[in-house]
Amino acid sequence: MISFLWAQDEKGVIGRNNQLPWYIPEDLKYFKKTTMGHPIVMGRKTFESIGKPLPGRQNIIITRDENFCAKDCLVLQSKHQLLNWADQQDKEVFITGGAEIFGLFMDKVDRLYVTKIFANIEGDTYFPIIDWSEWELVSSEKGPKNEENPYDYEFQVYERK
């Protein structure tokens, strides 16, 4: 099963200057809890913005650069390579960004985990256009807004209809 996991604001913003444009500790905890023990897939720029492999998960980087390597990561060069690899897994595989990688796998994703942030936040990277009529909301949980988590937000999970 291939799943997407991301956070976005009301306009679909997911990034600014190759970083998250917000700091919501509860969303970071949700990301860790949801992906722990599962493979996570990201583009090279997303990996470089994190700066290291995330522990407790197999980190897979997709890049067109055949010379790119990253310690303790599996590096693949194409959608085809990732799909072949994912077919051999018995775990949910999480695509975690960025926008180009989400767009590349939009036709193959089975489940969406999205943190919807109910604010307009300045950014330069947007989640690709998605046809929400193809998806059914299966769970929704409001996150706590407080001093550490300054926005109203909700953890939502969708299954493809």
UniProtKB/TrEMBL annotation:
What does UniProt give as GO cellular component? cytosol
Report keywords, A-Z: NADP, One-carbon metabolism, Oxidoreductase
Q: In which pathway does it act?
A: Cofactor biosynthesis; tetrahydrofolate biosynthesis; 5,6,7,8-tetrahydrofolate from 7,8-dihydrofolate: step 1/1
Entry's EC annotation: 1.5.1.3
* Limits of the DHFR domain: 1-160
Q: Which SUPFAM superfamilies match?
A: Dihydrofolate reductase-like
Molecular function in Gene Ontology: dihydrofolate reductase activity; NADP binding
Which GO terms are recorded in the biological process aspect for this UniProt protein? Answer: dihydrofolate metabolic process; folic acid metabolic process; one-carbon metabolic process; tetrahydrofolate biosynthetic process
User: Which Pfam families is this protein grouped with?
Assistant: DHFR_1
Which reaction equations make up its catalytic activity? (6S)-5,6,7,8-tetrahydrofolate + NADP(+) = 7,8-dihydrofolate + NADPH + H(+)
> By its UniProt entry, which PANTHER family does this protein fall under?
DIHYDROFOLATE REDUCTASE (PTHR48069)
The protein's role, per its UniProt record = Key enzyme in folate metabolism. Catalyzes an essential reaction for de novo glycine and purine synthesis, and for DNA precursor synthesis.
Q: Which family does it belong to?
A: Belongs to the dihydrofolate reductase family.
Report the protein name in the record: Dihydrofolate reductase
